[in-house]
Design brief:
- 69% of the residues lie in helices and 1% in strands.
- It has 368 residues and is an all-alpha fold.
- Strands 1-2 form a two-stranded antiparallel sheet.
- A hairpin with a 3-residue loop joins strand 1 and strand 2.
- Helix 1 packs across helix 12 and helix 2 packs antiparallel against helix 8.
- The longest helix has 44 residues.
- The chain is globular, with a radius of gyration of 20 Å.
Amino acid sequence: MTNASAAGSAGSRNRREGLLAATAAAVTVGLWASAFVSIRSAGAAYAPGALALGRLLAGTLVLGAVCAVRGEGLPPRGAWRGIVVSGVLWFGFYMVALNWGEQQVDAGTAALVVNVGPLLIALLGARLLGDAMPPRLLAGMAVSFAGAVAVGLSMSGRGGSSVLGVVLCLLAAVAYAGGVVAQKPALGRASALQVTTYGCLIGSVVCLPFAGQLVHDAADAPLSATLNMVYLGVFPTALAFTTWAYALARTSASRMGATTYAVPALVVLMSWLLLEEVPGPLTLAGGVLCLAGVAVSRSRPRSAATMAAGVPEGAAVSGPAAVPGSAESAPGGRAAPTAAAPTAAGPASAAGTAAREGSAPPPGAEEC
């Protein structure tokens, strides 16, 4: 009787953890998609590097204040390698490269190239983190990528393209993927808030060479553009990156990467509702495919779902138990380190791998 009661309690706790992680992922995707509208305004008045620095500074200030209120200390030594790598690649290099690249290519090219990111996360996650690659995940990613391509093709021809722009978008995708894979093991040793705060701080330091440009642009920028830059720092960066880290600590990098394929679909919807940009049939079809692929990639066979009721979230399927270096949730919302946690951030850094706010929406729809 006691064992049955304990098993039921554990199953209920795991279901609750799974629901919280799914909610956190949904918040992240929604905020990253919302960044599209803000970048439209801020990107017209701020240079790529200046916009990235302003956004990161705003995010760092908010995160630092939250850390102070919560009494969060410095992350453990074992988490710093992953934090530094993700901070340099994802928070720093990725944002500048993406902002710059999207000024050089049309919407279709940018969406197509940057959406390679989740595929790279799956490959790197399998190689460096031991992520499982179940057929449903692969099938869902294939469907979502096809949807992203459809969205991109439907938006082609609205601007020019250049070799430099394509290279920058590709580098952004690689940096995003490497940053996610490097961040994963760090979340087994430090809280989501710590990893996000110090990653954002490191990204700000990387972008400091653009400080002069930021001051120059801020002097001439309209108030609406500056407010949109601050919004990008507070919500799509500070809040969305924290909810991303919370969810990533409780599932695999591959599955989280696949989830960001919902961003292009939400960008299409938000552009329709907020900017009155009516999407064409191909764009709508692509958005539907993106969402369908995400649903498939995050689904589990009925037998696995039944078994999961009595085991930790994602065990042998998608959660911490399936990924070396991941961890179960511990009291206080902090991920507890596991004995098997490898220093996977090292290989990620050595491989030169590493966040538009997740997958890549159309130009200017920076993911995070």
